[in-house]
Write a structure and sequence with these properties.
By secondary structure, this protein is α+β, with helices and mostly antiparallel strands. The protein contains 8 helices and 22 strands. Bound molecules: zinc ion (ZN).
Length: 428
């Protein structure tokens, strides 16, 4: 099927683009899917990712981490969604994993959506022999082999399916950009809770079932950081999103896998955030369990209400590395820096779209992509195929705050990502 791959160069903004047409002319597309799941819980104490202040190794495990794969195939084209209960693929590990997976599983770059749920209660991935802890190095090497095996397994398990989508809503995520006014009247944006700030409350659910109606998968997309647990926590967990996946699988039964995807949530935290531990006080429901169950119950409600399914979705995918304008440096009189790359992967199965963003994208950007998408249902999947850090909409650069200080991108970069993501979807 490689003959359908061609590359297009357009001025300056795209350095790489693969486009795969929708279907063979005249051939009815039969949609197939295969799933597989593997446990990826560290078996030794590891350095945990997400908080620079946390120096020690993990001490125990609350709930298992997994990698879940949902592979689609139609007319010789594939679209492989991979959800991992990890923080993300930082430090070059996205490229490291993708290169190995693409080769061993014979996938095109645009066909693989390798993503993470952004739990901050999981291991740090590293291939750095100088700085990485030996247990984390060993974990990362073993993870590569596990991902190759589980993705290849899902691609071998293909069988005819029908898919349907539904949308629910969940208030578990809160905008975290809190306005503080000091005694002398100075304002600042701090990490906290801004209950009236924008949040994308949609819970998108995709039901995948066999022709006889038996379930295959309940994939879902929701925009929140998985950070009920903070930098004082040393217990391994999938946090709010991982616990939601586990809840959905427990309720729907072992035959159904529930891969989760983190929507645009760079400025969205769980309602209860950065707590030191699972509270074991008698009668107390630990916050990650409470919020994960709340989200999981909404996923199950939506899943059970999906009655319309379609078995004829043609697949199209595309991958681009955008070269985005960098934030001017604060020294040397605001000198401009070199453009900073940002990976965008788009896919389409019939009228369901997937937009994989290789960074930590603020929620307004995800909502803009969904609003402009040509498809009825658009899964925005962040921490996908890259880890370029925060990307914030232009107007928030005026307010400042943590995400603005951290980002490598100029204020106008977000508009480019929105525009290009939508354009790429239209081109499929
Ligand atoms: Zn984050």
């Amino acid at each position: 099927m490689r003959r359908f791959r061609f590359s297009v160069s357009v001025p300056s903004i795209l350095c790489l683009l693969f486009v795969v047409p929708l279907s063979h002319a005249g051939e009815p597309a039969v949609l197939k899917a295969g799933v597989a799941k593997v446990e990826i819980t560290p078996t030794k104490p590891v350095q945990m990712s997400g908080y620079a202040s946390r120096k020690g190794l993990s001490t125990d495990v609350h709930d298992p981490l997994s990698a879940r794969v949902l592979a689609f195939e139609s007319g010789g084209k594939r679209l492989v969604l991979v959800s991992t209960d990890l923080i993300g693929f930082y430090g070059g590990t996205a490229e490291y994993m993708r290169e190995a997976i693409l080769e061993k599983c014979d996938l095109q770059p645009s066909e693989l959506f390798l993503s993470a749920i952004h739990t901050h209660a999981g291991p740090t991935l590293t291939t750095d022999k100088e700085k990485g802890h030996p247990n984390n190095l060993a974990y990362t090497l073993a993870l590569k082999d596990k991902l190759i095996a589980v993705i290849c397994e899902a691609c071998r398990n293909l069988e005819p399916v029908a898919i349907g989508t539904g949308v629910g809503y969940c208030p578990v995520g809160s905008n975290r950009r809190e306005l503080r006014i000091s005694r002398n009247g100075e304002s600042s944006i701090v990490l906290g809770r801004n209950p009236y700030g924008p949040t994308d409350k949609e819970v998108l659910v995709m039901k995948v079932a066999r022709a006889d109606g038996t379930p295959v998968a309940a994939a879902f997309d929701y925009a929140t950081h998985a950070t009920c647990l903070g930098g004082k926590n040393y217990t391994i967990s999938g946090d709010v999103i991982g616990l939601a996946e586990q809840f959905v699988e427990k309720i729907l039964g072992p035959e159904t896998i529930a891969p989760a995807f983190a929507g645009a949530s760079g400025n969205i935290d769980p309602w209860f955030r950065v707590l030191p531990a699972f509270n074991t006080e008698p009668g107390w429901v630990p916050e990650p369990v409470l919020l994960g169950t709340f989200l999981g119950e909404e996923v199950v409600h939506v899943y059970r209400d999906i009655s319309q399914t379609d078995s004829a979705g043609a697949i199209g995918t595309a991958f681009a590395t955008l070269q985005l304008p960098a934030k001017p440096s604060e020294d040397a009189a605001g000198k401009n820096r070199e453009p900073v790359p940002f990976n965008v992967t788009v896919g389409r199965i019939g009228d369901v779209a997937f937009v994989g963003l290789g960074g930590e994208v603020l929620t307004e950007i995800g909502m803009a992509i969904k609003a402009g998408s040509p498809c009825a249902c658009t899964f925005v999947i962040t921490h996908c195929n890259g880890a370029a850090g925060y990307l914030a909409p232009k107007h928030l650069h005026v307010e400042g705050g943590y995400e603005i200080r951290s980002t490598a991108y100029a204020p106008q970069a977000a508009d480019v990502v929105v525009r290009e993501s939508i354009r790429m979807l239209h081109d499929l």
